[in-house]
Design a protein that fits this description.
The protein has four helices and seven strands. By secondary structure, the protein is an alpha+beta fold. Bound molecules: nickel (II) ion.
Length: about 190
Amino acid sequence: MILPILHYPDKRLRTVAQPVLTVDKTIQTLVKNMFETMYSEDGIGLAATQINQHIQVVVMDVPGEQNDYQLLLKERSGKAKSKKSGKPLCFINPKIVEKQGSEIHIEGCLSVPGFHAEVKRFNQIKVEALDEKNSAFTLEATGLLAICIQHEIDHLNGILFVDHLSKLKQKRLLEKTKKTKKTAEA
Ligand code: NI
């Protein structure tokens, strides 16, 4: 089931998500629907906050070099896939336990459609979480995967990537959003 995504500046995106107490069927269904929603919007990550569920659940599918290579081989053999895909990942109650370095990357967000901006983040992180089968795992991530994890954990804390921008850029974005809304309603 594809779920509606909240859009900036919706106040509900500011809600701090609660930890998941039990990874049960309800959570597994939510995870399934979140993946479906993320893929339908061509996203690489989605936090439960964005679909107005305020619990600590994140899904992600970040294209990786290895996977791109495998995809290329598939395309050459005639079994082309339309989308580049990495490994689907689910993080329940994620916690960043180690972080270092920094990297500036252009980010976008399904909750802020049509807007991209540079954000500075840690470029190496270690995250602990549960998966949708309730197994605990630790993941060391770099590059785009590390950036995406930080972006999604921000969502769970009610933080959007635009909050990392200068006050002036945020003001301009807000004005642009209001203008678009007005035009759409007219
Ligand atoms: Ni986002």
